[in-house]
Amino acid sequence: MQEEKKYRSQDWFGKGGKDGFIYRSFMKNQGVPHDEFTGKPVIGICNTWSELTPCNGHFRELAEHIKRGIWEAGGFPVEFPVMSLGETLIKPTAMLYRNLVSMDVEESIRANPVDGVVLMCGCDKTTPSLVMGAASVDLPTIVLSGGPMLAGHFKGRKIGTSDVWRFAEAYKVGELTQEEFIAAEACMARSAGHCAVMGTASTMASMVESLGLTLPNNASIPAADSRRRALAHLTGRRIVQMVKDDLKMSQILTRKAFENAIMVNAAIGGSTNFVIHLKAIAGRVGVELDLEDFDKLSEEIPFIANVQPSGEHFFEDLYYAGGIPAVMKELEGFLHLDAVTATGAPLGDNIADAGAHNREIIATVDNPFKPNTGLAVLKGNLASNGAVLKPSAASPHLMTHTGRAVVFEDIDDYKARVDDPDLDIDETCIMVLKNVGPRGYPGMPEVGNMTLPKKIIEKGVHDMIRISDGRMSGTGFGTVVLHVSPEAAVGGNLALVQNGDLITLDVPNRSLHLHVSDEELETRRKEWQPLNLGYDRGYVNLYLRHVQQSHEGADLDFLVGNSGTWKLRDSH
Ligand code: FES
Ligand code: MG
């Protein structure tokens, strides 16, 4: 018997004749009884499990808990894999493939008999890539994140990914032996889950929760905590009802939702990568969002979630203190409480009973850990389309500073010369790295927080101004100007900076200025040669021909927007 409502999947499973035979028969080889095909909501579970994405290594088990909830609510779960992006192994950078995965996700959803989708997201790029792809189809969709690792322990101290950068410096100057370095590896990654700090993965998990795409507390429950599995179960239950109610992604992803996400990101000291990914998601659903919106909307939002790298603790601690719902409760006066969420209720209802249990972890807006955070969007002749800096991770004494540029033409040049004792540099200089943008590397890697020259670290100096068209790991910190747009590889003024030029960074006035006259820049521009990147075939060639600049979200230009679930022809 057919249920009254005819779901999209019935265009496959509800068919008579040869087509219906083929669509059902082969599915039955997996032990599916016939009545599963007679009108139940079919729920796709989009799984980014991979042993090459260790942060998502527990997703096969987690998917089983989602299925329990789907079965229980009367749905029919179908799990499918998509390309999985692990930050730690993929060269040259997982970011090069974010848009490729979004295509995989979009086409896998559209082409198959699914009525709703659970997106299983974890390691950094596995969140934006899945959300982007699903948004371009716009079925009822819910996100389940994988959760953070438990904090590591090394020599009696808690550690997380942000310590990698500290260990690297200590190792460089001989304060840590090779043996200690190796011991720290196992101490840090001691449980399932993604980076334990407010890196990009935690930022992305918080982003989808504050956008309203998840059940409450999705972001911060540790991967190893049983409540993560219970949440998976509940997420499975919930997506079935979302399909019955036809609650589509586009009803959740409104301008209000994006504004909420920007404000929450400021309050938690989220990664700078947030800007690029949120811009790309907004592009898929047609929500207007300018780079300046990130700055303006976070102007009054203080830093209230004491998690590394901007704070002291770990993402699991945020969960024990009340999680993202408690953070949003503190921000109640700023947020759009009427924004629709995946629960079916407005945000205000979801957080009605939320509250902070530990003021060392979640502060009030009136008594925050740091006053102004968010993201500073800088403009000037060195970044006419903008650049970003994370004030909460920067040094106050460098926020207004003029220094002499020490230029590295690309990452190889940097690696070859940074520790040269004869490099003409001191801590008042500004390190400039070119050709690490969306096109230049290619793929915009997280190399913007260049490790300082050895001779500077040896003086006990741990921060200098660094400027590049690249990104920085969400776990990184320092006075680092990132995402300079237009990038060097397309001939932006960044490409024209020379050793000895003076640069002024003025964060209070949101300015990044190169003290070189327009005439001189024009002369230099005439001599500038574009890089020959040498990718004459394959995905990277397609990427290079179509990738947008970072201020636009670095999506492929032809992927902006969505195509919905257009009517598909049968396959036989
Ligand atoms: Fe996967 Fe940090 S490396 S989340
Ligand atoms: Mg990262």
Automatic annotation (TrEMBL):
Keywords: Iron, Iron-sulfur, Lyase, Metal-binding. Pfam families: ILV_EDD_C, ILVD_EDD_N. The keyword Transferase does not apply. Residues 40-350 form the Dihydroxy-acid/6-phosphogluconate dehydratase N-terminal domain. It comes from the Bacteria. One of its GO terms (molecular function) is iron-sulfur cluster binding. Residues 360-554 form the Dihydroxy-acid/6-phosphogluconate dehydratase C-terminal domain. InterPro entries: Dihydro-acid_dehy_C (IPR042096), ILV_EDD_C (IPR056740), ILV_EDD_N (IPR000581), IlvD/EDD_N (IPR037237), Sugar_Degrad_Dehydratases (IPR052352). Belongs to the IlvD/Edd family. This is Dihydroxyacid dehydratase.
